[in-house]
């Protein structure tokens, strides 16, 4: 399931991010992938150790971890610090699956990549091509969102970035290990949570709403690994 989360950064914040990212030297994106990825990946990335990247990445994570839709849909346990990539002049990233386990930078800890997140930092009208194409059990989805918006999708999906034929596409991206490993269970919890929230708005904390809330937490207790 793909989840669109709008306005994680304001337009002014996006401009400020872009201004700061423009001052840094970018490196070949193949620095962070294995041999399969390296064959199909043609883009540029901010170096993992870039202090500006880490600072902007922290802002992005703070915003998402304070966002009710992200929290409900991802049920995050932990995320890797966000990275940044750029595509122009025909650069692209062919179909691939993200590596299942990633080591946290400057740490011996690793996480399992359950969910991938992409935050768009360029307006869709400012570049041509560059669609994120995600193939999951429900079909093929093309994603190109307003600057400041986020798409959340299963890391197990095949996905690619189409060639950027005009302009430049800037994005931030990162992986999250969810408390609930299974996509199907996590999606069920998210749907249940959305319905409970909607019922609570209509009915307040009625006995039934409290009962369903208890049911949600007991399912989470069964399925969460923390
Ligand atoms: Ni990927």
Explained architecture:
With 226 residues, this protein is of the alpha+beta class. It has 6 helices and 16 strands. It has helices at 11-21, 35-40, 51-65, 68-74, 183-203, 207-223, and strands at 3-5, 27-28, 41-42, 44-45, 76-79, 83-88, 92-96, 101-103, 110-112, 115-120, 127-129, 132-136, 139-143, 150-154, 158-161, 164-178. The strands form 3 sheets. Strands 1, 2, 4, 5, 6, 10, 11, 14 and 16 form a 9-stranded antiparallel β-sheet that branches. A hairpin with a 2-residue loop joins β12 (132-136) and β13. α5 packs antiparallel against α6 (207-223). It starts with a strand and ends with a helix. It binds nickel (II) ion (NI). Residues 96, 98, 159 line the site of nickel (II) ion (NI). The site of nickel (II) ion (NI) has 3 residues, from loops.
């Amino acid at each position: 399931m793909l989840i669109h989360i709008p306005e994680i950064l304001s337009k002014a914040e996006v401009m400020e991010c872009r201004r700061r990212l423009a001052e840094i030297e970018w490196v070949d994106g193949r620095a962070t992938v294995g041999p399969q990825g390296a064959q199909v990946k043609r883009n540029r990335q901010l170096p993992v150790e870039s202090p500006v990247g880490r600072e902007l990445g922290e802002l992005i994570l703070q915003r998402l971890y304070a966002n009710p839709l992200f929290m409900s849909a991802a049920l995050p346990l932990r995320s890797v610090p966000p990275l940044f990539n750029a595509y122009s002049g025909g650069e692209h990233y062919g179909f691939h699956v993200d590596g299942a386990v990633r080591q946290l930078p400057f740490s011996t800890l690793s996480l399992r990549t359950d969910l991938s997140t992409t935050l768009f930092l360029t307006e869709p009208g400012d570049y041509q091509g560059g669609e994120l194409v995600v193939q999951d059990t429900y079909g093929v989805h093309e994603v190109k969102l307003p600057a400041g918006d986020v798409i959340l999708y299963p890391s197990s999906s095949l996905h690619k970035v189409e060639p950027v034929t005009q302009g430049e596409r800037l994005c931030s991206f990162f992986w999250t290990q969810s408390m609930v490993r299974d996509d199907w269970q996590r999606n069920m919890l998210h749907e249940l949570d959305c319905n409970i929230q909607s019922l609570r708005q209509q009915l307040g904390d009625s006995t039934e709403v409290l009962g369903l809330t208890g049911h949600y937490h007991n399912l989470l207790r069964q399925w969460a690994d923390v």
